[in-house]
Design a protein that fits this description.
By secondary structure, the protein is α+β, with helices and mostly antiparallel strands. It folds into 2 domains: 147 residues, 2-Layer Sandwich (D-amino Acid Aminotransferase, Chain A, domain 1); 169 residues, D-amino Acid Aminotransferase, subunit A, domain 2 (D-amino Acid Aminotransferase, Chain A, domain 2, Alpha-Beta Barrel), CATH 3.20.10. Strands 1, 2, 3, 4, 5, 6, 7, 8 and 18 form a 9-stranded antiparallel beta sheet that branches. Strands 9, 10, 11, 12, 13, 14, 15, 16 and 17 form a 9-stranded mixed beta sheet that branches. A hairpin with a 7-residue loop joins strand 10 and strand 11. The radius of gyration is 20 Å and the shape is globular. It starts with 18 loop residues before the first strand and ends with a strand. The structure holds pyridoxal-5'-phosphate. Pyridoxal-5'-phosphate binds next to helix 5.
Amino acid sequence: MVQLDWSNLAFKARETNVIVISRYIDGAWTKPEVTSDYGIVLNAYACVFHYAASCFEGLKAFRGVDGKVRLFRPDENARRMQSSAAFLDMAAPPEQLFIDMCVQCVHENIDYLPPYGYNASLYVRPLLFGSNPQLGVHSPAESTFIVMCAPVGTYSGAAGLTPGTATIARNYDRAAPNGTGCYKLSANYAPSFHPYNVAHGQGYRELLFLDPATKTKIDEFGSSNFLAIKDNTYVTPLSGSVLPSITNKSLQQMALDFGMKVEKRVVPVEELAEFSEVNACGTAVVITPIYSIDDKPTLESTTPTLTYRFGTPDKCGAVSEKLYKRIRGIQDGVEDDTHNWCLML
Ligand SMILES: Cc1ncc(COP(=O)(O)O)c(C=O)c1O
């Protein structure tokens, strides 16, 4: 195993032993190749550079308390990539190829899989893009599928479950109505760089996007879903422009297992005043408690018209903590994986 400062990995790109590559050429996927060369060569006319034909996934492998390696729900990521690729009219790797390449990537880079007990994991990043040269605006004939991985700690760099603040992005949208928000397209993310920079510059950890058509309903954070707790109910937005989060889906099942009610429905912004706990959830952030959300006329304005508060800045809500412990427990092999979510490697 490599020697890294496992307690301070942050969430950043790091080259490991190898990446795994397959190409879709002449209607078929090539046998996956393993290479230590991260410097892939592409034609300057490659479709991805000009027309952003690209989608990606993110999932995690964990070294458990029992020393076994668990990959969390790779079948779900495989299917989501197929749905993203279908929207782009691109060939997607079949589910088994996707899973096999993720497994191979973890095995080949096992030296980088963090030990149990550091709240760290091996983040696996499958990436699919149109790689043939073209000038016409149409979907690519050839694609490249690469799986890479990096050891990561918490997304924000703060200890797990450290509450943070958020602000609403009233004058920016993450996705258009009837657009691409429900797919994990690379092109969804670049437009959020600027509003995130503005929000981070003002000290906010997260940025909350509203439904782009009416700006009256909650959609999601820039790279994570929104979940709230109200009495014994788990509330999460139902919206066509939200990415179907695998973490959120798993947490909803856990909430049901705990005997809670789960409501996936339209969430008006004003309902923020009624929630006792609010979190961002996703593979990278797991559950990140949000203790306040500012609503401002524009992201650039410095005075909020309203501040919604949930719990206290120093402590995660009790229900959120229970959900966090359960999902992390399953991933670490500390709790029973009653729904068979982990693929044992
Ligand atoms: C926009 C967006 N929403 C939600 C999520 C969380 O999804 P998941 O739980 O599948 O990681 C992500 C991260 O993948 C994301 O980028």
